[in-house]
């Protein structure tokens, strides 16, 4: 007699189990796709930041060349001031872009519970990219700061040379009163022009000193990171040198041990022969 039993509930339970197992891969797939898009956004933004750093470096080189070409008879102050303003605004934008890149890096880092080994490698790569860009930007800021300091020194030297050049001129004397009036007018006009020029130079020096201080404050964090990276590199170099020294010492010990073994080869052969004779004698006694 066959006993019938309703197993519909077991069937539905099994169906629900399969359904729940299939939802997990789909969720993981959506997470993987989202992470891939964020990684692409991070990489693209990092490339743009690197290109902007290169562009700013080119402008700094132009400013440096103009500073070297500056002279009393070839005043390039206006163009240099324009380049300085452009570089400052570009560096400020790059400084803000690094904060955005940090946020993109955090979003692009994959989850730890999915592909743990690959996630760790990807996160390390992103950290390396951000640290490298920070060091490049810090180096660019230091170059710009050096260019501003050189420009400040150039402006001061140019002002001093002009002052010496104009103050050494002795006024000519004329008997005619008309010539004397013209001479006084020219002297007064020259004095006013020089006074205005010196005021402009003093203002330019103040602006340059303020720009140097502003750039220094802007890149304090990046400069600290650069020093930390340099210290890390120095420690790595020291560790590598120590490891190389240990390897050489170990190699010398192995060579010395090999030479000792080679010199004691006769003794080793005697010991082996003695063991062989003992084994033969022991085997002969046992067999007998």
UniProtKB/TrEMBL annotation:
Alphabetical list of InterPro entries matching this protein: SNARE, Syntaxin, T_SNARE_dom
Q: Name one GO cellular component term.
A: Golgi membrane
Its placement in the membrane is given as:
Single-pass type IV membrane protein
Annotated keywords = Coiled coil, Membrane, Transmembrane, Transmembrane helix, Transport
Question: What does the record give under GO molecular function?
Answer: SNAP receptor activity; SNARE binding
Domain of life assignment = Eukaryota
Family (UniProt) = Belongs to the syntaxin family.
Name under which the protein is recorded:
SNARE domain containing protein, putative
Protein's organism: Angomonas deanei
